[in-house]
Amino acid sequence: MSAAKAGYPVQIKDISNDGILNAMAYHYGLLEKQRQRKILRNTQVQQQMLRLSGGTTYRGFEKVDVVIEAVFEDLTLKHQMVKEVEAHAKPETIFATNTSSLPIHQIAEVAARPDNVIGLHYFSPVEKMPLVEVIPHQGTSESTIATVVKLAKQQGKTPIVVGDSAGFYVNRILAPYMNEAAYLLLSGEPIEHLDNALLDFGFPVGPITLLDEVGIDIGAKIMPILVQELGERFQGPDVFDVLLNDGRKGRKSGKGFYRYAGQGRHKKAGEKKQVDKRVYKLLGIRPERNVDGHTLAMRCTLMMLNEAARCLDEGVVQSARDGDIGAIFGIGFPPFLGGPFRYMDQLGIASVVAQLYQHADLYGERFLPCERLVAMAQAGQVFYPAELESQ
C-alpha cells in the first residue's frame, strides 16, 4: 500500500491467484476506510488501485527497479527467491528482503549480484507503523542503500540504517525486554498486572499482549536465532513449546495468553479481551501480585536500555538519535521519555549502571551493564553532550 500511495506502480507476485486477490482486497479495504473518513476521494482510491497488478509468474520483472521480497522466515526459501528474481530481473534490480531476523549477508551469499541485496524491515501493521529498518550487508553498494532510503521516505516511512546482525536493532532491544516479562510471569506476576505496569510506564501495549499480537510462534522462531548469534543473555524462559503444543499462537489462532471471542482474528467493537486463566495451569503458575508496577516496568526496561547501549557500541545503530527514533517508532518506547538514550541521560548513566548491577545481584548476569555504559559512568559522559552543554 505504501508504495502505491507514493505513486509507484506495484506488481504483486504470489504462488496463487488467491494470494494476489487477498492482497488487493486488503489494500482496497484500507483505502475504503480512508475514503469513508474523507481522507481520500473516490478518484484517489481508484488511482491507487489502478497502480496495482499481479500474477503468479515473473512476467514483467525485467522492468522493475526494486523487488521487495516478503516470504516466510526460511533461509532456503529466501535463497530460492534471490536466484529466481535475479534470473528474471534486470542486472540493476535491487532485491530488498523484508526479514525480521535472518542476517542479510546469509541471504546474499547465493546472489550473483550481492551489491544489489539489502534488508528492508517493515513493522506490522505496515500501514500504521512509521519505521523501516534499512539493513545493508558488507557488500551492499552505496547506491543501493541510497535508493532504498529514498524509497522508504517516499512511502512516508522513517528509515534508519542499521547493522547486519541478528535481530537488527528493534527486535534485538525488544527481545530481552520481552524475556524479562516472561521471567516475571513465571515468578507468579499476573498477566494483567504485567501488561498494566508497562502501559502505565508509557508503552502503547503491554509485553504479554504484544506477544499475542505478534504471534507466539514468531517469537519461538526469532529467539533461538538471537541466542545462537548473540549469546546466552538472550535465552529466555522455556514457555514457547508448552504454549504452541496447546495450539496457542496468539490472536491469530484465537487464543494465546488472552482469549479472543469466537476464535476471533479481529477484535469486535467494544470487546475487552480477557486473560485465559488456563495458561497459568499450563505453565504451573499461581498468579499473585508480589511487586509494584513501577518496579516491574523498570526491570523490563533496564534490559532494553542496556541492549540499546550495546547496539550503539557495536555500530548496529549509527547514533543515539537513530536508536531513539527506532525504539519510539518501532516499539512504541514512551515518546515523552525521548527514547532509550535520552531516558538514560535523564536518569544519569551512573544511576542506570548502579541499577543494572543491583538487578544482576538479584536476578543474574543477564543484567550486567555493557562496557560502554560502565565507561560512560566512570567518565561522567552522556549520549547527548551538546544538549547538556546548552543547559
Automatic annotation (TrEMBL):
Superkingdom to which the source organism belongs: Bacteria
SUPFAM superfamilies with a match to the protein in the record: 6-phosphogluconate dehydrogenase C-terminal domain-like, NAD(P)-binding Rossmann-fold domains
Alphabetized InterPro entries for the sequence: 3-OHacyl-CoA_DH_CS, 3-OHacyl-CoA_DH_NAD-bd, 3HC_DH_C, 6-PGluconate_DH-like_C_sf, FA_oxidation_alpha_subunit, NAD(P)-bd_dom_sf
Domain 3-hydroxyacyl-CoA dehydrogenase C-terminal span(s) in chain numbering: 167-260
Keywords of this entry: Isomerase, Lyase, NAD, Oxidoreductase
Annotated coiled-coil segments of the chain: none
Protein species of origin: Photobacterium aphoticum
Pfam families: 3HCDH, 3HCDH_N
UniProt domain 3-hydroxyacyl-CoA dehydrogenase NAD binding: residue ranges: 3-164
Enzyme Commission number(s): 1.1.1.35, 4.2.1.17, 5.1.2.3, 5.3.3.8
GO MF annotation list: 3-hydroxybutyryl-CoA epimerase activity; delta(3)-delta(2)-enoyl-CoA isomerase activity; enoyl-CoA hydratase activity; long-chain (3S)-3-hydroxyacyl-CoA dehydrogenase (NAD+) activity; NAD+ binding
Example GO BP: fatty acid beta-oxidation
Protein name: Enoyl-CoA hydratase
